[in-house]
Sequence to fold (161 residues):
Amino acid sequence: MVFSQYFIDLGYEPANRQTTPDFLVSVTDPLSRIPRADILTAPRSAEEFAVAFKQSELGERNKRDIAEYETSRVGQQELALSYKESAQEEHASGALKTRQVSSNGLTSSYSDQRRQSLSLVDPHADKSRHEAARSHHARSAALPRHQHLRLPHHGCDHGHL
Fold:
C-alpha cells in the first residue's frame, strides 16, 4: 500500500502538483492539509489519527508484525546469547585490526602524515625545521624582553613637527 493512498483514503487530498513527501508532511499540519469534499469524517486531532490507524488494515498488519516479532525474538535466551557473543567477537577483531593497522603505519595522525611526506621530499626537512626553531628560540631568549617587541624605525619623528 502506498502511504499517500492511506491518507487519501482517510479523507485528505494532495494539492495540485504536490509531491508525495510534501503531501505526507502537509497531512501532519492542520493548516496545510486539504480535506476531501466527499469524506466528512476525516480525523483532525492526533488522537483521532491514532484511532483511525489502529482500526485500519495497515494498523492491523502493524499489530500482527509486532506480535510476530515478539514471539520470534523477544525473550529468546539463545538469540540474546548469540548476539552477545557476536558483538564480543566483532569488538575483539576490530580492536586487533586497529592495532595491526596502527603498527603497520597505515593509520597515523595528520601531523605524522605531514612529517612523513616532508621527509620524502627532503629527508633532512624535519631535522632542519627543528634546528631552525631551536635557533630562533635561542636568539629570542638571549634578547632583553623589551627588544622582542621593538618595531623598526623608519626615520620619522612622530613627536615633533
